[in-house]
Design a protein that fits this description.
binds flavin-adenine dinucleotide, globular, metal ion binding, binds FE2/S2 (inorganic) cluster, Rieske Iron-sulfur Protein, alpha+beta, FAD/NAD(P)-binding domain, 2Fe-2S, 26% helix, D-Amino Acid Oxidase, Chain A, domain 2, nine-stranded mixed sheet, disulfide bond
Amino acid sequence: MYSTGSIWKATADIPDYPALAARTRADVCVVGAGIAGLTTAYLLLRAGKKVLVLDADTIGSGETGRTTAHFFPPDERYYQLQTKFGEEQARMVANSFRQATDLVENIIREEQIDCSFLRLDGYLIPQVHGQNDAVEKEYVAAHRLGVDVERLERVPGMVYDTGPCVRFRNNAQFHPLRYLAGLAKAIEKLGGVIHCHTRALGIDKEGAEQKVRTTGGDVHAQHVVVATHTPFNDQVVMHTKQAGYSTYVVGFKVKKGAIPQMLLWDTGDPYYYVRLATFDDSDEDILIVGGQDHKTGQETHSQHRWDEIEMWTRNRFVHVGEIAYRWSGEVMEPSDGVAYLGRNPMDSENVYLITGDSGNGMTSCTVGAMIVRDLITGASNTWTSLYAPNRKPFHGLGDFLTEQTNVAQQYGDWLNATAVTSPEHIAPGEGALIRRGLQLYAVYRPEEGDLQVLSAKCTHLGCAVHWNSPEKSWDCPCHGSRFRTSGEVLHGPAVAPLAIVTLPRE
Ligand SMILES: Cc1cc2nc3c(=O)[nH]c(=O)nc-3n(C[C@H](O)[C@H](O)[C@H](O)COP(=O)(O)OP(=O)(O)OC[C@H]3O[C@@H](n4cnc5c(N)ncnc54)[C@H](O)[C@@H]3O)c2cc1C
Ligand code: FES
């Protein structure tokens, strides 16, 4: 478990499923039970396939349980997509987002999932008053691509003057974990099998089949869908094309109805964004505000990120009440701004990825599920090459090179990382690196009990992990792996835990 909890976890009943206990077989093995995995499983079952879903933890225990669940335009602005990919492909992104949102709405209707799905308008506003260029450029680009947009002097009905904005009509929001709970029940009803508490350790080709090695036995399947947020099967290629960013959320109590239902995000990079969560059985709404992203594993005491969000919010929404929730999570940023959805570039025709979905996973993962379903069933899909994971990073070469340089610098931590000299310098409930010779040790002092000492060497590609004080985890600054204080993997690409070791004397 993470140290902080999202509003969704506190307000959903999530079904649990037993671990896999023996070798088994399916047409398709889907690894990961977040929105990407469960949507893919659902669509494939509807297409007549025999599907088995595995999750290392529980349903929605990954980023889908920590999202803010807006369906809104791509994080990479339409004017940027148009410059990088050209008008036709940027229009395809817009169409795919629209169709994904429609699909989610249809699934909710057909399966009668009670998850507060709401169609609503969203507004892009300037981060700094008077700097309206990005808003204007986005309006022109989105309008040209056929997106339903309107230019306004300010957000209507808003409690503060936002300045000129673009209204994007007909976006959506929902309760992500209630949606997953509904999808899981629909999967069962369609004959799908789900095993939680079962970690996939690797995928091997065996004749015409794939074998997924897991902690509960091997799964043989014709096709494997890796829907683990970041792929665990591909150790290098995909991890040079995307980067993990930590992102922060605060939920404030507000008087019911005091703030209108809308989505709001600004032109900053990273941006602040806002939505409301309402519950029939409560006389308060929760105003959810997110932002303050930074590269995962590259900041230890990041509690101030929540303070920044609080200050931003109280300066604008002066009537918000006390804080009810604070949490953080990780997003995977693709180097060219478009998710990687489709065939695994490396080893096989029958292994598929859904990753790189940035802060747009609700829509991108649904697009990914549609693409993967079509690849497996042989149906045509016009988005396949746009989203292909094997595309070269030409469209985002500058960002790609910046990220590679940043990763290379992180290996310098083996020589220069900030470390304490002795466990006495670690407060209860905190962790720190300790150096002994050329080795770094990740040492956590629990509130009670013995020190927990781990090797600081990330089991993915060997960078030194860093302490994440608010979430009480060890985070890798290279490709975003995260580990519990016990060493277990919280987030890939790592598959193996950090090694438990003994701290040598000084
Ligand atoms: C704070 C925050 C706010 C966000 N806001 C938005 C938003 O407003 N709109 C939006 O569209 N997107 C948003 N996102 C992004 C979105 O939440 C994610 O892109 C999306 O949830 C990813 O879904 P997923 O199914 O790919 O991954 P996950 O939900 O992380 O699911 C992956 C699953 O795979 C399992 N797993 C991992 N490794 C293994 C393994 N080896 N074996 C078996 N199982 C494994 C995990 O346990 C997990 O359950 C936000 C993200 C964060 C963190
Ligand atoms: S995540 Fe790649 S080295 Fe740690």
